[in-house]
Amino acid sequence: MASDDIDPAETPVAEWVDRLAQAKGAPGGGAACGVMTGIAAGLLGMVAAYTDDDPEARQAEQRLSRTRRLALDAAEEDGVRSAAFGAALAMDQGPDRERAVRDATVVAVASALDVGRVAASLLEEVRLLADIGNPHVEADLRVAVEALRAALEGTNHTARANLDLLARHRTADDHLDPKVAAFERDLVDLAAKRAECTRIAAGWSSE
């Protein structure tokens, strides 16, 4: 871990949020999406734990414990990458800065999408727990879905902003077309997951 970064899994919540509020950008929005994903995984884990005597819930609880750690690892890694991104932007104008910004922006988009993929993996658990979960903690399940939806929406905003920045720093010979196309496909996939979250939440709202 970079010396200027903090691990959300090992840092008191108040301290982490205070750091988020500073003009550092590390952690930033991408890391916040990772933490929101961790919150969603934690709440889903709680619903699974409250669903007694169901072997599927026990298995989900174990998977969600791993996903929660993956989400916080992704949040920490995004903070590290955000620090490198900020350092590139702070360089003096010139060809070296252009190249550094381009490279750091590609990494930043990939980092946001890493968070998004972890978040998207939680939809399977949402479907399962919406079906078998203890109804007494349905409110917590709903909060989990809202946190997940926010994480996916935030991932989209972060990745899109970085892709826009990348477009302004590209050159004709940078060979980034295949990578950008892959990023766009990933964003389409995440949009489908986000839409599913929205449909689930809308279904609850209509009850």
TrEMBL record:
Residues 13-167 form the Cyclodeaminase/cyclohydrolase domain. GO terms for molecular function: hydrolase activity. InterPro entries: Cyclodeamin/CycHdrlase, Formintransfe-cycloase-like_sf. Pfam families: FTCD_C. The keyword Hydrolase applies. The keyword Hydrolase applies. Keywords: Hydrolase. This is Methenyl tetrahydrofolate cyclohydrolase. It comes from Microbacterium oleivorans.
